[in-house]
From TrEMBL:
This is Cyclin-dependent kinase 20. It comes from Culicoides sonorensis. ATP binds at residue 43. GO terms for molecular function: ATP binding; cyclin-dependent protein serine/threonine kinase activity. It catalyses: L-seryl-[protein] + ATP = O-phospho-L-seryl-[protein] + ADP + H(+); L-threonyl-[protein] + ATP = O-phospho-L-threonyl-[protein] + ADP + H(+). Transmembrane segments: none annotated. The keyword Nuclease does not apply.
Amino acid sequence: MSTMMEEYAPPRYKILGKIGEGVHGLVVKALDQKTNQFVAIKKLSLKNKNGGIQLSTLREIKVLQNCNYEHIITLIDMFPDVSGPSLVFEYMPFTLYSKLKDEHKPLCRRDIKNYARMLFKGLKYMHELNLMHRGTTDIEQLALVIRTLGTPRVSDWPELQQLPDYHKIRFPYSKGDVWENLFPSPTIREEIKLVDALIKYNPKKRLTANKALNHEYFASNFKVV
């Protein structure tokens, strides 16, 4: 498939090899001969039943075109081919996921705090552009939250009754859990307090990305629980 990409890629991009492949398509490493910088080219092959590009793909492209921030990956270029668009991104030698899975070099708390700060800064920027994340597994995500926080109650979340079809919704029963049981030991008290402030049913009590950046976690001297 990388050979096919070479046929359609503009001459400025020299394909060097495959980085990975998933349900959304192929990702290859390339050299941008115009800037002499490495790039990652994401080949999308997501078409709907009518042969057009899926709405979610168009939405992703539009969002990336509107973002210009140091903590959000840069969409440099895009070009078409027979099966769909190819997106050219700045090359990242590793992902946060690969860092988290690296058992030989686990992240220290300083690294975790730095990555968390970058994530919140990027999220704050997106919120300021009135952009929000969309997910295809929102029911599963809600089920995880319910298992942790317990079944939502009107006393905790007054706007619960305003949800569409509220009286038709049947939430699974869960008494919830305490954060100390879910975190590995030893855990920092400020880490637990930050997560607790972020995961709230009531959005009025939930930290925004901006408020999260000002949380004591980012300015505290760690004390192990």
